[in-house]
Design a protein that fits this description.
Two copies of one chain form a homodimer. Chain A has 244 residues and is of the alpha/beta class. The first copy, chain A, is built from eleven helices and ten strands. At the A-B interface, helix 7 and helix 11 of A face helix 7 and helix 11 of B.
């Protein structure tokens, strides 16, 4: 049974302000919870699930606080349009360490505001072994539930920080900065990078002028057909497949 | 002003059965409508929009049936959670011609059920100049509103057909079939294809055994990090960037 106050509290974590104050966020659905129970168990504060799911996962859940809820209760606390068996309250990850960029490929995101795109980029980064993503402060919040869903659990493994992006890039004088742009080098002709920061820009506006001026190498994914643009996450996948 | 019957009729096009019976579908939002008004004007049956949008686009709309609606009316007929200025009823495209696969790269999709993934793959195909996509009958419907949104207008330029995929591929004896699989050739080491069909499989189950047996060349996108999988659309983008 879930009391009204508890329901309200869990619902409130749908808002960034409350997530920031509490240092908590929500992840939902069997697939992501199983991932996080493996990779980030110590961050999980409580699990709310329907009886069948809780019973099937008892061993993995261990002694984490567990609440069995009805379908109706789950619908109330869920942020999904189709609630999916279980939900967890999780402590935000400690992403405060200065990222070590030496000998690595890292990503910088300029105003990636679509939560699905941000989450998918985090998942792609994790696939290609990229551990640092630096976001401009106006990117979507990584703890937004749609971002969390789209990361498919990779949120626990990639270090994401929010900074004044132009100022931060300007301070990185000893590392090359790459970015996708309309007139650049064909990505297919490029070689794997030993080290570098790759910038991806806003879904419709691209990379801001201020950031673009700091870029050393422009990269293009040549268009052979007629689509107006490529999705930002797909572009990130293509560039990382070649350069990382 | 929109009558109740008209509202019900437009809402009914949210269902595949009704779309099939009427031969119509819905597209929404300024960006896609502007695309379709340019690339597929003759298919547009009627436009419903708020006054401001209709006025700004009068010249492009021309003599297509136009209805000015209030925000409340738009909310009623829209399938989006946030209705976006305008919506059009559109005649389905004629995708009945036998696809010409000679000297081209074409795609085959096995059980791509996520509408966002299907729409994004259509947009990616259009970017890389792929004009034929062959879907297994259990893929999402391309006229589902979420698919239409995700194509960003590319739906008008790519020929999508639904077939019994294993039987169809088995009949293509004179063309090589490629597919992403766990143990295949590293995509980064491959060259552009002159001709071929590339198969992408279901988001979680991959490619069915029956289809896999027909594949001539398996392709792998090597994993360097820890993510459990790559999104199907991202995989399609990476493979097409290298092979198309």
């Amino acid at each position: 049974m879930l009391g009204k106050l508890k329901i309200k509290y869990i619902q409130s974590l749908g808002q960034k302000k409350l997530r920031d104050e509490e240092g908590l966020f929500i992840a939902e659905g069997p697939k992501i919870l199983q991932e996080l129970l493996t990779s980030a168990k110590k961050n999980i504060v409580a699990v709310y699930g329907i009886e069948e799911w809780i019973q099937a996962n008892e061993a993995t859940i261990g002694n984490i606080e567990t609440v069995i809820v009805t379908d109706d209760e789950l619908a109330k606390i869920s942020q999904l349009s189709t609630p999916n068996k279980a939900l967890a309250i999780i402590k935000k990850f400690d992403n405060s360490a200065t990222p070590d960029l030496k000998g690595k490929v890292s990503l910088a995101l300029d105003t990636i505001q679509d939560p699905g795109n941000l989450g998918t980029i985090i998942r792609i980064a994790d696939w290609f072994g990229v551990t640092n993503i630096i976001c401009s402060t106006d990117c979507a919040d990584i703890y937004n539930s749609k971002v969390v869903q789209a990361t498919m659990g990779s949120i626990a493994r990639v270090n994401v920080q929010y900074v004044d992006l132009a100022a931060w890039l300007a301070s990185k004088k000893d590392i090359r900065i790459y970015a996708t742009a309309l007139e650049g080098q064909d990505v297919a002709t490029m070689k794997k990078l030993e080290e570098g920061i790759i910038v991806f820009g806003n879904e419709s506006k691209g990379i801001s002028e201020e950031v673009l001026q700091l870029v050393n190498v422009k990269i293009t994914i040549p268009k052979k057909g007629n689509a107006e643009s490529l999705n930002a996450a797909v572009a990130a996948g293509i560039v990382l497949a070649v350069l990382s």
